[in-house]
Amino acid sequence: MKELRYPFSEEAVRALRAGEVVQVTGRVFTGRDRLHKHLAGGGACPVSLRDGALYHCGPVVVPQGEGWRVVAAGPTTSAREEPYMAEIVARHGVRLIIGKGGMGAATKAACARYGCVYLQAVGGAAALIAQRIKRVEGVSFLDTFGATEALWQLEVEAFEAVVGIDTCGRDLFDEVRAASAEALRELLARG
Amino acid sequence: MNWTDLLTELIRRTTSDLPSDVEAALRTAATAEAAQSQACVLLQSLVANTGLARQQATPLCQDTGTLTFFWQVPRGTDTQALERSARAAVRSATEKGWLRRNTIDTLAGTSVDTNVAEGWPACHFEQGESPREPLGGQITAHGDVRPPDLADELQGRDGGRVSSRAAGSPERGSVEVWLMQKGGGSENMSAQYSLPDEALDAGRDLEGVRKCLLQTVWRAQGFGCAPGVLGVCIGSDRAEGFMTAKRQLLRPLCDASPVPELAALERRVLDEANRLGIGPMGMGGKTTLLGAKIAARPRLPASYFVTVAYMCWVCRRRGVRVTEGVVEWLG
Ligand code: SF4
Question: B314 contacts in A (CB within 8 Å)?
Fold first, then answer.
């Protein structure tokens, strides 16, 4: 198990290999469809994502005192952000993409080129992951995008995930997809 | 009876407390995977998440889903009043953080923070037949479909006030309601095929249906969080097909269709889907599907639809029955 601490260096990220389990500690930003569209279209970002982690997640957040508390925060389907992701990695210097289900060819190429990895979090494990979120540091776009789609700035501790796409172009999801396509062909032919 | 409070509690249970048959299936699956394997570790995380959500009464998954209430009421019931209570309950559960602000005004593109809108949550009312009972074909089977060991487990965990009857003929005068929460990632993977399907080489028979179901499971990888459950309707029209398919997801994992050929197809699809190697979260493994629940309905000569409601491992469904003021929690 490798530990990754914010800010995430290019060197640390390039040393990761698909299949490795990592624990992320420090700052993580959340973003969903509206944020990705905004950023990829050249929209301004009120915080710096450089050497940071962008988590595909729309959390359940409740007010607590002056601030907020996250009660559920599992990953959302990353494939929806494929049209925007490579552009965001290039423009904003994101080092970790966290989500579920993997991404496409453009993101894979951007990971290799700019030094970024894709991490798979456990889909649906929202309570477990929320436990790893120590603090809500801030939020942007709350009014424009709503609570679910806003950009939340979180402090996490030992957030576990698996490297799904590394900087060498290896993609675990592609491998499973290809092998299962073969198995499917056989089962369909069986009759 | 304060229906708003009761339904708010039903939402709390549904959103945070995974049905015990689903949890048991995840535990069994974890032991079937190789120890220390990625799949085994992932399944153990799902079980851990389940325990934590229950203990804290927080959502199992942040996508608290589309809420659908399946009601079964005696004749003469004021269904509009029950629907108002359902809406009030959703509003209150959202304020408590049991439901995410999970509703978008489709035209304006803005968040509907209360999670309440026209026809949202959905309420379906029926008289007579239990909503938990749409077993395969045109057969209506009454009685207990859950084996006794699972019933004991339910009794043990919830401390008594849980019915061991998953389905059955309702007592006269009782109101029964089941809530299903279905997340977007899984709903996006639901599908409808019109047979024959050339690309799949699927004809108008159960063999063709089998091909559609395996294809649906394969397509869901990376989208609906595996392992999943399939609710299936063969026949009917497009609209009723989806409703019937969705209702199949109310059935406990351990039951079987009372129609022998459908029961056989359920078993076969479950077995074959788990040989695809997709595994939990699409990262490889033996556990891709937890159940297949299939019903058949009549169709027009011109149509042969296969409708699949894909459900992720967070298979949220719970019910409550009220008989003369006595409350019984179901599921
Ligand atoms: S598919 Fe299911 S488990 Fe996965 S994020 Fe959606 S609701 Fe949650």
Answer: 124
